[in-house]
Amino acid sequence: MEFKIGLIRGDGIGPEIVEEAKKILDTTAEVYGCTFRYSDMLLGGASIDATGLPLTEDTIEEARSCDAVLMGSIGGDAATSPWYRLEPSKRPEAGLLKIRSALGLFANLRPAYLYNELRSACPLRDEIIGDGFDMVIVRELTGGLYFGERHTDMVDGRLTAVDTLRYNEDEIRRIARRAFEIAGKRRKKVTSVDKANVLDSSRLWRKITAEVAAEYPDIQLENMLVDNCAMQLVRDPAQFDVILTENMFGDILSDEASMVTGSIGMLSSASLNETSFGLYEPSHGSAPDIAGQGKANPIATILSAAMMLRYSLDLDTEADAIEQAVQAVLSAGYRTPDIYTEGNILVSTAEMGDQIAAQIRERKADTV
Ligand code: IPM
Ligand code: MG
Question: Which atom of ligand 1 is nearest to the CA of 281?
């Protein structure tokens, strides 16, 4: 079987972590007998440097011709990078928002779970961690405040800025269905997060989510206000299975959820549309301060590649193999600097990729 995979290497540590993910994809292809063809494309700062724009029509066209796209992280240091002297619509992040919208990537899945091996990196107290936690944030990605009308004008002699939070029922219904489908394959609980005590958009969110819940009688729906959710994530994270929420709340809560795992360098994400196409990227940023030094943890990108095999290419066995190889390498004690603790084996970005690739080969050899 042959697949076409778009690669957006991105900025900062992006190129080095994408290189390791490609190493893992190539190893998986060789060991399991499939073929991945790659197409390099530009987004974010690298695209600004090459074309003057954070996203070109070429990239959008090329992405449409791929089965899926794997991306490193984009963006730079806002205080020093010339990209941030451009007007907001020409900066790296604008390219990311535009590609999400152009490809209709409305469903953003961000798993956050605690690796037992990395318990000591979790900032929560032992009694809160308990037996660990494992949740997925399902964030609506192409609506709400991010895409509503915005402008800044002089009103009555004062500069006045307006952002618009707008959702229609279809946008809510399709993301809610995704969340319930995912919960059906997990622990069968959806926590829908909103601010229904204040916002009309949240009251509509609650109404439509309740209607969708009626289609899934075996799944429990719980509604939670966003401020309470922020608190519950550090008070008792194990209560969550699937968190369903709108764009802005999801942006904020997913950073919080990844932080409480203590290992943001480990967390993958997927942005999906109505078809099997998806854009896969690590949950972390481009970390320009450590770029090019071999210190970056490639695991989040490698696990994003595994998600890509599972959700877009329907290669579950291969995805399992990558995830198990990562687990085995952690069990053997290999650590990049971000997750290193005394007594472990410190490795570089490329050495981490080599170890995971070696595990994929060995484990396959063991089963034949
Ligand atoms: C994310 C990021 C983006 C977002 C930024 C870079 C525009 O924070 O993917 O969570 O806010 O969606
Ligand atoms: Mg964010």
Answer: 9
Q: What is the DSSP string of 224-246?
A: EEHHHHHHHHHH-GGG-SEEEE-
Query: 251 CB under 6 A from ligand 1?
Result: yes
Radius of gyration of the chain (CA): 21
Reported as a single tens digit per residue, the pLDDT across 282-333 is: 999 999 999 999 999 999 999 999 999 999 999 999 999 999 999 999 999 9
Q: Pick the closest to residue 3 from 26, 36, 27, 33 (CA basis).
A: 36
CATH for 1-112+263-368 is 3.40.718.10
The amino acid present at 228, given as its one-letter code, is N
Q: Which of 251, 259, 271, 286 to mutate to test the pocket of ligand 1 (most atoms within 8 A of CB)?
A: 251
Tokens of 222: 């719980």
Instruction: For residue 251, indicate whether it is catalytic.
Output: yes
Beta strands in the chain (DSSP E): 2-8, 35-41, 68-71, 107-113, 134-140, 150-155, 158-163, 189-194, 220-225, 242-245, 268-272, 278-282, 334-335, 345-346
Instruction: Assign domain 123-260 to its CATH architecture.
Output: 3-Layer(aba) Sandwich (3.40)
Closest among 65, 88, 84, 68 to 76, alpha carbons compared? 84
Where in the chain are all domains bearing CATH 3.40.718.10? 1-112+263-368, 123-260
Out of 90, 188, 189, 195, which one is annotated catalytic? 195
Segment 206-219, tens digit of pLDDT: 999 999 999 999 99
* Atom 12 of ligand 1, residue of closest alpha carbon: 251
DSSP type of residue 142: S
pLDDT tens across 124-175, in order? Answer: 999 999 999 999 999 999 999 999 999 999 999 999 999 999 999 999 999 9
pTM: 0.94
Q: Which has the closest alpha carbon to 115: 327, 272, 352? A: 327
